[in-house]
Amino acid sequence: MHQKLPSTRRVFRRTDNHNPGAAKVQLVIEDLPATLPPTSVLIKVHTVSLNYRDANIANGGNPWPVTPHGIPCNDAAGEVIATGSGTIDIRVGDKVAPITDTENLTGRENARSWLAADEDGVLADYLVFDERKVCRLPSHLSWDEASLIPCAGVTAWSALKDIGFGGSVLIQGTGGVSMFALKLARASGLKVIVSSSSDKKLEELRSQYSEPLLSTVNYATFPDWHENVLDITQGVGVDLVIEVGGSQTLIKSLKCTRRGGIISQVGYLGKESAKDLDELVPLLIDRRVNLRGINAGSKQDLDDLCSAMSAVEMRLNDIVDSKFPFEKANEAIEYVWQGKQVGKVVLGVNGSC
Ligand SMILES: NC(=O)c1ccc[n+]([C@@H]2O[C@H](COP(=O)([O-])OP(=O)(O)OC[C@H]3O[C@@H](n4cnc5c(N)ncnc54)[C@H](OP(=O)(O)O)[C@@H]3O)[C@@H](O)[C@H]2O)c1
User: Fold this and answer.
1) Could you write out the DSSP letters of every residue in 139-200?
2) How many angstroms separate the CA atoms of 73 and 123, rounded?
3) 241 lines ligand 1 (CB under 6 A)
4) CATH code 3.40.190.150 for 8-148+316-348
5) Is the pLDDT assigned to residue 71 strictly greater than 80?
6) Residue 271 has what pLDDT?
7) Looking at the chain, which terminus has fewer C-beta neighbours within 10 angstroms, N or C?
8) 118 near 294, Cβ under 8 Å?
9) What is the mean predicted confidence (pLDDT) over 155-159?
């Protein structure tokens, strides 16, 4: 029996009112196409997960331009309920997500187009995407877990590349990307050090990751936290840093990375000031560090991550901090903006709660 297809969808668009306390997104009803373009699929969304970026853009802080009044968010999971006449890969019933940078299919494309910035994002109850920009998600995961993969998951996956088994990694902060990276790193046999500004969050993580006991550093209590990382690594430094602080933390990250190690520059959470980077070039050269920018990842990366997770049936329920109903998108964005979460905040859509 054919499912009756929706003719409209509910979407949140940014208000672009950046005043504290103002609503950051507004619910609107929009038409869906009467006929799907030949290579497109219609996705019924079950969960959207939030990233720092969503809160930052909603509050006017994004370092890159975004389309005015765009639809926020780039992490969603849903079910395909209809396909265009010419689709060849994705089928009705598939559990899928759109990729975050819809131009980045193999990692070799020169163009980029990020959801929720260069084009509309995914905070909606139905989505239409070309099938080439959509990936199948692991079938063993719940909708909430699956929604963490396309941006936060792929970013963590890309950031951890090129570190060998038994290597050491410093993961900064306890946000979504970092907690995903922690799971992947432990599953890959890496020695992990996690930093946080909160002893309470670190204590919770140590009780969750007790065998072997997780190494932790409080970067707020110990401003010279890189010294703690050097102590933990017998003065050598870690093989890889997942850098989320930006120019405020980069120099200290360089100081606690081993000679020839890697820094994956993922975030820009700290205050940006060129003055903080005075030592950058001498340190880079002296420590022979490979400093690389991470930009989520390609469709191929997403497929690879899903294969790896499926192979060991990795679950992600322990990194879901909290769930809000779709209608409470403003509250959820504010919660992330205040940094209250450990891990991920998700929104239940189409009755998923
Ligand atoms: N390049 C990419 O492709 C990509 C993709 C996704 C995200 N990002 C970026 O990566 C960063 C993290 O994103 P997210 O979504 O995981 O964020 P999130 O869930 O909001 O987590 C942020 C956490 O980072 C920690 N933090 C804040 N300021 C810090 C600082 N100065 N130094 C070290 N840690 C700090 C805090 O943890 P504690 O409370 O434990 O201190 C905070 O809770 C953001 O800048 C985001 O824009 C980049």
Assistant:
1) TTS-HHHHTTIIIIIHHHHHHTTT--TT-EEEEESSSHHHHHHHHHHHHTT-EEEEEES-HH
2) 6
3) no
4) no
5) yes
6) 83
7) N
8) no
9) 98
Residue nearest to atom 8 of ligand 1 (CA): 267
Distance 37 CA to ligand 1 centre (A): 37
Task: Tell me, using a 6 A CB cutoff, whether residue 246 lines ligand 1.
Answer: no
Neighbours of 236 (CB within 10 A): 15
pTM across the whole model: 0.95
Q: For the chain, what are the domain ranges?
A: 8-148+316-348, 155-293
Residue 133: name the closest of 158, 159, 152, 111 by CA: 111
pLDDT in tens, 193-219: 999 999 999 999 999 999 999 999 999
Q: What is the CATH number of domain 155-293?
A: 3.40.50.720
Kind of pairing, strands 257-265 and 238-243?
parallel
Q: How confident is the model at residue 96 (pLDDT cuts 50, 70, 90)?
A: very high
